[in-house]
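Hi, here's the filled form for the chain we discussed.

Project: internal
Contact: R.S.
Residues: 312
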Amino acid sequence: MNRRKTLRVEISQPQGRLDKFLQKQFPDTSRGAFQRFIQDGDVRVDGKKVKTTHHPRAGEEIIITWPEPEPAEAQPENIPLEVLYEDDRLLVINKLAGLVVHPAAGHARGTLVNALLHHCAGQLSGVGGVARPGIVHRLDKDTSGCLVVAKDDSAHHALSAQFANRKTTKIYQALVCGQPRKERLTVKVPIARHPVHRKKMAIVERGRDSHTDFRMLEALRDSALMEAALHTGRTHQIRVHLQHLGCPLVGDPVYGGRPARQFAQSTGYEAPRQMLHAAALGFTHPLSGKKMEVNAPLPADFVDAVNFLKSR
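And the returned structure, exactly as it came back:
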């Protein structure tokens, strides 16, 4: 049964937010949890759904419904997948933009793992634990393209070793703001967590080494279509490297900065997401030893963006 709590606001909070107000009333529940409850409609003010920024007013009745705890193990869900290659040891999928790879806070359902559990009928490696079965590597939520999944533990270990030892080939296509100064560029810089903005990565002197080779495929209107070959796999690596080059990803809300604002103003293009696509993935098959390369075609939103920026 869901737990329900009702309280009445005694003193107006003209400068306060509802999420902060509730966290003070219930200190054992995090503010982030209350933000999710409010967004999901589990918190109602006078029977209505409101925003987290709502200012509590004297006399309002607030009803909080704590949802049932989520099961520790991800559950199978019938979510369509575009499978590029599959055998009894592994599969490679073309991940859609917007699809979260594995369950996490705020994303307990509707993830790639939920889809894989249904597609593979539970035949996935257990190395990643109950929350990440089969997941050898990951892509950002808004990045589309090739992602390999292991069906058993031996395949998982073999593939993980190839990623760790830089024996895989990872080719991305990126739509960037502005145009690079050269057709071919290499970026080798140390990357670490940003010293102030902890959700961002940055070039930091004592960070871990990172290496990307870039090649311009096509010059577009105040932008370019580029290919990025990854030699390391740091968090947000391509995004940080493109920011370093002064040509951030189109649609990147974190690393775009001034070039992104100038691009939007000059072209009038509004990106639906960060325009990054994992176009090709190469690896050695863990059972046969065969060299494999799997390619993912550009998704429709990416093609539409390129066509829009070709027009003069």
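Let me know if anything looks off before we file it.
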